[in-house]
Hints:
Elements: E1 2-12, E2 15-20, E3 26-30, H1 33-54, H2 69-76, E4 84-93, H3 94-101, H4 114-122, H5 127-140
Helix pairs in contact: 1-3
Amino acid sequence: MLSMYPACFFHDEDGYSVVFPDLNWLATQGDTFEEAMEMAVDCLAGYLYSCQKDGDAIPVPSKLSEINPQAIARELDPDSSVCEAIVNMVSVDVNAYAKQHFEKSVRKTLTIPAWLNAAALEMNINFSQVLQEALLAKVQAR
Length: 142
């Protein structure tokens, strides 16, 4: 399912800053508009994915016409000078993005003694599952 939120893109000599006013002022940046848009998609996907995983309420997006980028710029930094600013919708299919970027598995090669391999195969042990569980336990113990 496609999720769409308005984002303010502020352009200055350093590139583009991106702010999502509906999402607790979630922000990112990029050197070019294209890079800023890519970062905005990634940022939006990560925020919504985290909300889903944590069971947090997902805010309702504002309409483009309700967003005033200059007012938001003044709210973020009252002393800032006026800069080029636009509001654009950023969209992402969170589930598809998560599968590609957040939940992607990687292949690992490992070496174990032959006798242990034979015993595990005889017991129909899922090597990947056991390794994941052991690594997770080790990481969480830190």
